[in-house]
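Supplementary Methods, section 5.1.

A reviewer requested that the exact input to the structure prediction be made available. We therefore reproduce it here, unchanged from the version used in the analyses.
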Amino acid sequence: MNIFSDDFQNGGRLADSHAYAKQNLSPSLRWEAIPEQAQQLALICEDPDAPGGNWIHWVMYCIPAEEEGLAGGIPKWQTLDKIGNTKQGKNDFKKLGYDGPHPPPGSDHRYFFKLYALSKKLIMGAGMSAVQLRKEMEGAIIEEAETYGVYSRS
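The structure derived from this sequence is encoded token-by-token as follows.
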């Protein structure tokens, strides 16, 4: 299983358009080679370089396994009807949906987009945290993939 973006190379720079203090648009993501037995997908974007520890920027789950990716600029809706009723959770900004990089000035941070293939369908409402999602995914992760971008602000 692989995940990648047309907006940045793995390990490359994220554009200002994805940053919290700029346009705050989620990047496009695509994936391939999803295991046949996958029932659903889940996505978590996190910054392990945050001063207080791992910072969650995006939580998305109940993604249909047949989806091939996400367009950029996903709206901050609880449920995304056009993506098979995909749900969005709360990030560490205490907001629903994607909120982009906002590192302290002068420091490079890495932003990991982690995709999980699940052996079961999650029955959950919108607004779950990454901690809650990870608990629900326990024992159901078939495979995972990640890509990351780097961002810094002056």
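The first strand starts at residue 2 and ends at 4. These observations are discussed further in the main text.
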